[in-house]
Every structure is written in structure tokens, then in C-alpha cells.
Amino acid sequence: MAGPRVLKKNDYLFREGDLSEAMYVIKAGKLAVLKSKGNSEITLAELGPGDMIGEMAFFDAKPRSASARALVDTTIIELPFKSLNAQFKTFPEWAKAIMRTVNNHLRSANQKIRTLEKSDEETNAVFPPHTVTRLCAILGNVAKVYGETTEAGTLVPPGTLRRHTIQIFQQPTNKMTTMTEVLQALGHMKIEDLGEGKQRLTVFKPDFLVNFVDFYNDFLFKSEDKRTAIEEKEMKTIKALLFYGKKATPNEKGEVKLNLTQMQNDSMRDLGSLFNVDDVNGLSEKKLVGEKFSTDAGLAVSMNFVDLETQFPYWEIIHACRKVTRT
User: Fold this and answer.
1) What are the backbone dihedrals phi and psi of residue 155, each rounded to the nearest 5 degrees, phi first?
2) Tell me, what's the pLDDT at 146?
3) How do beta strands 148-149 and 74-80 pair?
4) Where are the alpha helices (DSSP H) in the chain?
5) Is the pLDDT score of 261 beyond 50?
6) Domain membership flag for residue 116
């Protein structure tokens, strides 16, 4: 039903990919139009009183092409498409045709812009996603097939790794070198300089690399609406949840319950930084953890500890590779 609706600051009016059922007029306040880019959002526009938003979907009923979030407390007037359609039917056919054509041109232009941006990002990236999976697959496979098991881990023969990288998979050796440095920095392997250009490479857990490749490859081939990505800004929150989750007793489903209020009180002492109970809101929306609920001891949340513990190091690699810059 048409009428005013109030959004609190930071509330989303709708999110990118949501079904479209109405357009809106801003009566008071301000909205940001946001577009997903990697693990973050960029602001495309800021709209104020009198501006309309969400009107493009009226003509084709396509999912929302961007998100809209209140920058301050905002009042909007909701205009349901169902009601508008009854009025639209009374328009002359030529007017309907013009409006549909303009809308289609806007959709097409936006799609071309997104395609050009994506192509530019992939061209400039040192480690495009599929390069990450290839390099880790090469390293993991060589370690498992040709490696020597020791107490410290699996010794990887450098010559064999080099041949597989260049000759079989046709990947640049400098990228494999950078990948091993990233993995060493994250604690998954060790690189020792033996002098005269020789190295000793030790992969601590080759199966971890194999599992990472399976995970990331599966993620990359899913449609965007079925992907659940952990953003870099969320990693700190997950790290805190895992720290306290290790101390909790899981139930029969493997879930643990954490007291968020107590975590907030103890975080500076235990983690050296402040954890806020609202830090889990985004994770709850993605269903990576449950919804917050109240207990006698404060706010709490349930989560599957094993799932998050498994995914966390995978996303550490993904985000570390995204930070690699050209030299």
C-alpha cells in the first residue's frame, strides 16, 4: 500500500539483487545508491528530498541493479508497482513505448559500464581469481605427488615445481614465486634460502591447498546470487568469533553459542581491540552466523564453528592475493 515509510540511519531500503515491487520518492533525508565492487560497496549517487529511486524496474521487473541505504533518518513514499500499473495502462501507446525505450537504453548502458569495469580490473590484477586457483593447484599437486614428507611438512622439489609451472600449466614463474611468498606470510609454508639461487620449499599441509582450490573454484563458478563472500572488513569480526568459539562447547549440530556482550567487555583485554555486538550484523544477514538473541547474560549468537574455522584461512589467502600489486 502506498504511503510514507521511515528508515533509520544505515537501514537499507533494498539491496542489489532484491526483487522489485515498488518505486520510491524521498520525502525527507538522504539515500546513498551503492554498487557492489569486490568485497565492498561504492557510492554511485546521493539522493535527497524530491528524488525518485527504483523506477527502472517498473518497466521490466528486473532485480535491483544497486542497493539503497539511508545516510540519515529518511522518510520515503512507497509507490507499489501493482497500483502504478493500473494507471500506466491508461497512457497512450506512444508514451508507453518512449518510456520503455529510455529505460532499456539506461539498463544497457549500465551493463556496458559494468562489463568494462570488470575487464579493466581483471586486466590490471596481478592475481585474477583463476590464476590463484591454478597456482595453488600446481603447488599442492607437486607437493602431494613429488614431495618428501618430513616432520616439518612436505618438501617440494623446486625443479619439479618450476617445470610444472612453466611447461605443463604455462604460468609465469614470478607469479608462482609471489604465491609462495603470500602462503609463507600466512603460515602455510616455509621458504629457506640455501645460497647460490637454491631454495628449500616446505608446504606444511598439502591437503589444505587442495581443499582451498576446491573451495575457491566452486565459489567462482557459482552464480553471483548464490555466492556468500566474506569481506575483508568482516575478517576481524570472524577472528574474534573463532577465538571465543574455541572455548565454547558445541551442541549436537556442531553449533556454539557465544555471549556477545561478554565478548565486547573482554575484547580489549583478550584481543587488543574492541569488539562490538553489532559487528555480527552483516554476518547474520549472510547467514554465516545466526541472528542475535537476548539471554539473561546479554546478547548472544549461535554459529557453526567448524564451517567458519574452515573458511577463514581460505579467505585470508583470497584477500592477501587481492592486495598484491605490480612492481
Assistant:
1) -75, 125
2) 95
3) unpaired
4) 57-60, 81-88, 93-124, 129-146, 158-163, 173-185, 206-220, 232-245, 260-271, 281-285, 305-323
5) yes
6) no
Choose among 215, 205, 200: nearest CA to 140.
205
Whole-model pTM: value is 0.64
Structural domains of the chain, count: 3
Q: Are residues 211 and 285 in the same domain?
A: no
Q: Which CATH number does the domain housing residue 269 bear?
A: 1.10.10
Is 106 a member of any domain? Answer: no
DSSP-assigned states of every residue in 262-298: HHHHHHHHHHSS---GGGGHHHHHTTSS---EEETTE
Most confident of 16-25, 36-45, 241-250: 241-250
φ/ψ (deg, to 5) at 45: -165, 160
Nearest alpha carbon to residue 188 among 200, 205, 174: 205
Cα within 13 Å of Cα(242), Cβ side: 15
- Which of 220, 251, 277 terminates a domain? The answer is 220
DSSP structural state of residue 91: S
- Structural domain boundaries, residue 252: 231-305
Q: Where among 33, 63, 92 does a domain terminate?
A: 92
Average pLDDT of the residues in 282-287: 91
**In the β-sheet with 148-149, what is the strand arrangement from edge to edge?**
148-149, 154-156, 198-203, 189-195
> The domain that contains 62 carries what CATH number?
2.60.120.10
**Within a domain: 237:** yes
Model pLDDT for residues 47-84, shown as the tens digit of each residue: 889 888 887 666 666 778 788 899 999 999 888 877 76
pLDDT digits (tens, 9 = 90+) for 10-28: 999 988 878 878 888 899 9
